[in-house]
Every structure is written in structure tokens, then in C-alpha cells.
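Q: Could you fold this chain for me?
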Amino acid sequence: MKVLTSKEMREIDRKTIEEIGIPGPVLMENAGIRITGAILKRFPRITEENVVIVAGKGNNGGDGFVVARHLFNLGARPNVLLLASKQELKGDAALNLGIAEKIGVEIAEVTKIEEWKKHRIGLFHASVIVDAIFGTGLLKPAEGLYATAIEDINKAPGFKVAVDIPSGLSSDTHLLIGPAVKADLTVALAAPKIGHVLPPAEEYVGELVISDISIPPFLFEDESLKLEVIEKKDALPYVQKRKRDSHKGTYGHLFVLAGSLGKTGAAVMAAKAALRMGAGLVTVGTPQSCWPVIARSMMELMTEALPETPQKTISEAALPMVLDLLKGKDAVLIGPGISAHPSTAKLVVSLMPKIKVPAVIDADGLNILAENPDALKSFSCPAVLTPHPGEFARLIRRSNKDVLDNRLELAAEFAEKYKVFLVLKGYRTLVATPRGKIFINPTGNPGMATGGSGDVLSGMIASLIIQEKNMLGATAAAVYLHGLSGDIGAKRIGERPLIAGDLIKYLPQALKEMES
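A: Sure. Below is the predicted structure, expressed as C-alpha cells.
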């Protein structure tokens, strides 16, 4: 599902009206009908509800007038507060204002804060409040009368329904630009916008419903639209039931370079996750002293003891052995728990240009790359990097705040520059491609903010890559399933006690749910 900016949405609206020939009033009518339907679904006895609609002078207000008309026709008596004079309205909004008035809908003009104070008492007695003040084109903070109205809407106890986007949010950023309505339900028209799907703006959206208003679907297939949400249907092709005549070789052999003293758990979780995700074979290369722990962790794992440093990390002397182990493998995962020891770092940097299979780089592998950024350019095969915001900040030498505030732009720039797939982990994990496209993952929950969750994800990604041979599809599907496993775990045991091992525990159920 595409995620649009205000400019992209305006262009699609223009094509729909001017090139396809669907009139603007028809689109506005469809929007109003969809919003009305969403309200009725939650308040089926609408005639018993006290409804207040707060409208602006633009098309968002026009949608609000359509909602008022349909509710009025159903027997409700909505109270409409227009934050403008009626003479200010133009086009489709003015048309629907006139229609609403002609059938008997009462619309009060409110142009000053003093007038608002006289009318807002009804707001605090409303059981349903429809926010139709601003639409997707807002670029600057709400001020004056608008800011006061937004503040009072938030104070009011009624159920708040936002038309298209909560007023005060911008479609073009996930950051808060000023005061905004904190909705219980947002009915987005045609497609989600950036402010709908990423925090902190997302926290103001409440339940998000995407409503079809009859814009032709092919208009959303434009290659210039770079932002999408991963949907269940996108992941389904990568978890189909297996053919009866398959064998372990059908599903690939993954080599995992991981572990060091005190960090064997990272290696174990990554390898276990890879097997649970369906890899045919998994071999873990780890320091000699760590080998017994990892070898005993799961009977199905294959393990190799590698030369180590005095600090019990993998030594650069292991390079010939690692290269030999890579022969016949379908992908390599580098990083979980390997440490950033100088000798280990030399091994990783020396290894990268010699890798001839897809690679997934995680954890300490990323910390090593942060000190050797040019090593990224040495990859001859596709690579997936899986940093959390702190690791990504070190990679690009920016602050954590810069990364969080500009995640979409920075992730796309990095993936394009280094021709890699970047998985920027966190709430609403991003998958950026070498062509600058970004996919936003909708699954997952705060319970997954725990040590080892990233190791599980890297193992899942590497596993699906060797099975499906499609870097983008496999990576996006693995990210989706990782979050889905966490969501299933949170439902079973709650978010607070959730640990990384639970993600592996509930992965089979996530896969089964997808397969069915």
C-alpha cells in the first residue's frame, strides 16, 4: 500500500478529476459516505448521539458537510461549527455547504476566538466529534482560532473522528509541527500519508481506516511513488506451503559468523531463528572457546570452531577457514555477538570483498563497518544491513536525534549510495532499497524492545533470503513476520515480559497463520 505526500496526493486527485473525468464533487461525496459509514459502524444508534462537526473552509470542511448531510438524513441532528465565514468557501466545499443548509443542517459561523467560546460548550457535551478542520495540505502550525479549537477538541470527552488526517498534523512529516487533534479514529481518504504511519505523529491518529473514494488503483502504481507500507499480501508469496518432493538442499545452507565470550546467546538466537524460519541447513562459525556452548544449544545446528584471540573473539587468522566454510553456502550472516575486537574487525573487513553470496550484516558487524565505511563499497553481492538507530547513527556519523527525525530521507540516501538493502529497526521498521524505495513495517510492539530481538530478525532475514532468492521480498517478509511473532507473543503473555526467545517461540504460529 502506497504512502503519499500531500503533493503526490494532489497530483493523483488532479489526474482523477482532469484525466479520468471523475468530478471533484463525486470524490467529496464518496469521502463523506465512507466517513459516515465508519461512524455508523461504531455508533449504530446515531440518532441517540450528540454529534458536533468542526469544519474548516477547505475541502476537508466540505467532507464534513457531506457527513453532516448524511447523518441528518438518517435522523441525527449534527451541530456544525464552521471556523470561517460562509462567504470564504469556494468550489466543492461551498457546493456541499449550500446543499447541507438547504436540507436543514444548522451551520454556525465562527470567525473569532470570542465567538468560539460561545459555541464550544456544545463540544463538551458531544458524544461524537468530527474533526474536519484541516486536510492533508497543512504545512505550518495551527494558530489563533484554529489552535484554540484543536485544544478544546482534545479536552472534550467525546469520541473523536478525524477526516483524512487529524487537524494540525502534516502529511509530509512524521514530526509534530504544532498543536494537533488527538483522534480516536482517522478515516484516511484513498491512501495513508506519512503522518499516519510513523511516530510521533502516528500517536495522534488513533485507529486508522483507509477508505476507497473511487480513485482508480492504477494511479497508485506510478514508479515515482517511493514509500509503501508492507501488507500481509506482500509477505504471503514468501511463506507458501512447500512442495512434497523438496529436501533440505531445496531450502539453502546459511553460514553464520557470530559469537564471542559472553555473547554466545546472540549467535544461538540468530541461528535458531534461521532454522525456525525454514532454512535447510545452518552452520555457525564461532570462537574455539565458545564452540561447546553453541554446539549444545540446538541439536539441529552445525558448528565450526574458529581460531580466536586471547579475549575469546574470532581472530583474523580464521580468514582462510572462513573462506573455506563459505564454499557451497547460499548466504552469510555476519555480526551477532562477534565483538569489535581489532583482530575480529580485520577479519570482517578482509572478508567482505571476498564474499560471493548474499550477506546480512548485523550488530557488531555494523559497528566494525562504522569504523571502516569504505568496506561497504567492496561488496560484490547483494547485502542487507540491519542497524538500530544508534548503530545507523554511528554508520553515517550523525546523532541519534538526526536519525529519528530524518529516518526516511537518511535511510533512502544510504541505501542508494552504497547499493544495499537497509533495515532500520525500531517501532515501524523501515526497509530501504538500493533504488531509494522505502517500505514501512506495520507489525510489532514495544515488548520487542529487548536484547536479542535484532539477532532473531537477522537470522530470519538471512534464512528467507536463501530460500526465496529475492532480496527485497524476503527481507520485507521477514521483517513483517518478526513483528507478527512479537504481536502474537504480546497477546499471549503481554508486552512487558516478552523476550527475544519468545519471538522464536511464536514464529511457528506466525508462519502457520500466514500459510492458512
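A (continued): The first helix runs from residue 6 to 20.
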